[in-house]
Amino acid sequence: MDKDPLLQTRPQDQSLDVLILAAGLGTRMKSARAKVLHELGGLPLITYVCRAAASLNPKKIYVVVGHEAADVERAVETEVGDRAEFVTQSEQRGTGDAVMAARKLLEDSESVVLVLSGDVPLIHSETLKNFIEKHRASGAACTILSVRLENPTGYGHIVRDEGSQFIRIVEQKDAISEEQQIKEINSGIYCFASRKLFAALERVKPTNKQGEYYLTDVPQILLSDGEKVDVYLHGDAREVSGINTRAELAEFENLRRRNTIRKLMVEGGVTFLDPSHTYISAEATLGKDCIIYPDVAIEGKSTLGDSCEIRSGTRITNSHLGNDVFIKDHCVIIDSEVGSNCAVGPFAHLRMNTVLEDTAIVGNFVEVKKSRIGRGSKSMHLTYLGDATIGERTNIGAGTVTCNYDGKTKHPTIIEDDVRIGSDTMLVAPVRVGRGSVTAAGSVVTEDVPPDTLVAGVPAVVKKKLKNGDG
Ligand code: UD1
Ligand code: CA
């Protein structure tokens, strides 16, 4: 039998499309940057929304972009790759106008359209799954996710009649004072039947205090057409709160940080001496029995093995530590790797793909850039190692400098196994010191040193006595 072309697919059989609104500048952030690019736990806000969207396995994730479109697109693609498609809203004329920008792509898709805001980062995928289920089961043209807030200022309020039936959403700025007291607010998360959404959106007018096309006018229009509109009240207000100001961003950051650290303590067996003064990014992982002192920041995709001890004032960014690593106070470790049983600091700086092999030690006021330090080798004091490859069991004396830059190019230094570099040696790169060799204190090494060889710089000469007497 031929399928009746007028027979619409039932909601439960319709596919899912997600539409994320992310074109706004976010005036209340008072920033030159688009709001959805501001970071929470080291990740752009939009990343969290994309993650939640992707977990629903939609047919497509459409993202409406405008302000800083290229950067927003990059952030989205980093998270969901080509599962996203972008729609440009050239002028930001309101949330209704933003959805309208996707009309051509969505109107005929016969899908359930889940609308999300790019500035609501804490939304859980479970919540969205339940919400979509409710929408599909009820056959409504529109389902709104609402929450109750003690302080509903700034949001759209859900207006109901005496019988508690939904009537409309009224924005804070357009509400009369009674309506402003309504604690049930619109989360900005909706499910729509695609075709009905656009049929109603067409009739939205910018006749409000902000002169904008409000998406929030659509439910009322659908109701007046005799369509069914449902409101689903969600219990956790935090989860669906939007971020509009930097103060709110800081509140969310605090909350996220506390949750991350709590989880690490309770489930991960990590000790924090002062959880309220420790920063751990959303993406870092820490092994059990790590001990984290106050004023430590572990940023980006850093990983720490088991039983690491990180003392105060240290920052670790996108770096990897093995097991039993001891990072003493005030170190900066960026894009680097520290093997098991290493010690670093105090006041050491590792950067640009530096690698410390197991049991290496880097000490006080040592900077290591783009270098590899072999097993059991040590550089304990006041040293710069750049573009260097250092073998095993080698000792680098205090004050050693790899003179790696001639003003134009960076040159490599190679120091083989079992070498002793005397204090204050200048290694003028490119240069190689062969295995088992020794440089005397103060040597300026400008040519390669063969293995098992002693080299010495020009020693100071006693010139004359400066003062009479014997003191
Ligand atoms: C919106 C809702 C409000 C709800 C609140 C929940 C409207 C009119 N109001 O208000 O009822 O309580 O969210 O957080 O929808 N955007 C665009 N293009 C535009 C305007 C906005 O893409 O022209 C995007 C923004 O980038 C943002 C999202 O839409 O990601 C929401 O916009 P925002 O200005 O934050 O809306 P609210 O005033 O918070
Ligand atoms: Ca908002």
Structure description:
The chain has 471 residues and is α/β, with parallel strands linked by helices. The chain has 2 domains: 230 residues, Spore Coat Polysaccharide Biosynthesis Protein SpsA, Chain A; 198 residues, UDP N-Acetylglucosamine Acyltransferase, domain 1 (3 Solenoid). It contains 9 helices and 39 strands. It has a 16-stranded parallel beta sheet that branches. It has a 9-stranded parallel beta sheet with strand order 14-17-20-23-26-28-30-33-36, with no helix packed on it. A 7-stranded mixed beta sheet has the order 5-4-1-6-10-7-11. Strand 8 and strand 9 form a beta hairpin. The longest helix has 21 residues. It is elongated. It binds uridine-diphosphate-N-acetylglucosamine and calcium ion (CA). The site of uridine-diphosphate-N-acetylglucosamine (UD1) has 29 residues, from strand 1, helix 3, strand 9 and strand 10.
Helices and strands, with pairings:
Layout: E1 16-22, E2 39-40, E3 43-44, H1 45-54, E4 60-65, H2 69-80, E5 84-88, H3 95-100, H4 103-106, E6 112-117, H5 125-138, E7 142-148, E8 156-160, E9 166-171, H6 177-180, E10 184-193, H7 194-201, H8 218-224, E11 229-233, H9 246-266, E12 271-272, E13 278-280, E14 285-286, E15 291-292, E16 296-299, E17 303-304, E18 309-310, E19 315-317, E20 320-321, E21 326-327, E22 332-334, E23 337-338, E24 343-344, E25 349-351, E26 355-356, E27 361-369, E28 372-373, E29 378-386, E30 388-390, E31 395-396, E32 401-403, E33 413-415, E34 420-421, E35 426-428, E36 431-433, E37 438-439, E38 444-445, E39 454-455
Parallel strand pairs: 1-4, 1-6, 4-5, 7-11, 12-15, 13-16, 14-17, 15-18, 16-19, 17-20, 18-21, 19-22, 20-23, 21-24, 22-25, 23-26, 24-27, 25-27, 26-28, 27-29, 28-30, 29-31, 30-33, 31-34, 32-35, 33-36, 34-37, 35-38, 37-39
Antiparallel strand pairs: 2-3, 6-10, 7-10, 8-9
Helix pairs in contact: 1-2, 7-8
Bound molecules: uridine-diphosphate-N-acetylglucosamine and calcium ion.
